[in-house]
Amino acid sequence: xxxxxxxxxxxxxxxxxxxxxxxxxxxxxxxxxxxxxxxxxxxxxxxxxxxxxxxxxxxxxxxxxxxxxxxxxxxxxxxxxxxxxxxxxxxxxxxxxxxxxxxxxxxxxxxxxxxxxxxxxxxxxxxxxxxxxxxxxxxxxxxxxxxxxxxxxxxxxxxxxxxxxxxxxxxxxxxxxxxxxxxxxxxxxxxxxxxxxxxxxxxxxxxxxxxxxxxxxxxxxxxxxxxxxxxxxxxxxxxxxxxxxxxxxxxxxxxxxxxxxxxxxxxxxxxxxxxxxxxxxxxxxxxxxxxxxxxxxxxxxxxxxxxxxxxxxxxxxx
Length: 318
Description:
The chain crosses the membrane at residues 14-35. The chain is an alpha/beta fold and 318 residues long. It has helices at residues 2-42, 64-75, 87-101, 119-126, 154-183, 204-224, 256-264, 277-288, 291-317; strands at residues 55-59, 79-84, 105-109, 131-136, 186-191, 229-234, 272-273.
């Protein structure tokens, strides 16, 4: 009996030691997270994008995060090439930026849902510009969460999403990297998504394409970091924009302007970032949650959004 009590006591002692070790480990992780977040988003010690060249290129530049990057880069003294589908919207944003920030602007109207045939003309229009910063922001998502077999006009939607979310960033990078390498400096910012950091059910194709963009960025950064280039993957959660269909900011949903100000503060310090403190916090919390729980929560949330969207769609058709 005494031997059993002694063994039980040692077992409890071992469990207590393990528990204390885990507590210390996670406490240290939380402390390091807070210190790093304060340094990143509180002090805002990001590199000056202007040091990479006199011109920047921003895709998807007429709304949301893309427009905010174009404005913030212009505020730092860079000339801006704005690229998006609608020329009238591009002209309006370009005129606004040129007037407000006293920089040069250039617009290139292009439909990124098209295939590889569009990039020869884009290359010609960019030729001769000292492009120091490329922001691959243009993106395309589902109209609302759907099961994969429910996608309407799937050939058009799937092909368009792959062309916009994967091909555009890949080809734009391919066009611009050689001139950056010749000057041994350049900054490429790829706007991926938190939806690409883990599988996202009912947004399967969107999540997968954003995961590609994240891996593309990380691999390129390893390839070219020794050659003076920075390739950054930015993974926002929800931000006020047309893509998210959210029009009001909240604690967890910043405006595009405030988000981009925070994200630019990470340049030169983080090559993979959630972009702002609250999104960084969300990412940290998700990293602690077992994937089976995360899958369940996301599936339940997106099933609810799907049900609501289908109900609204039915009401409109009546």
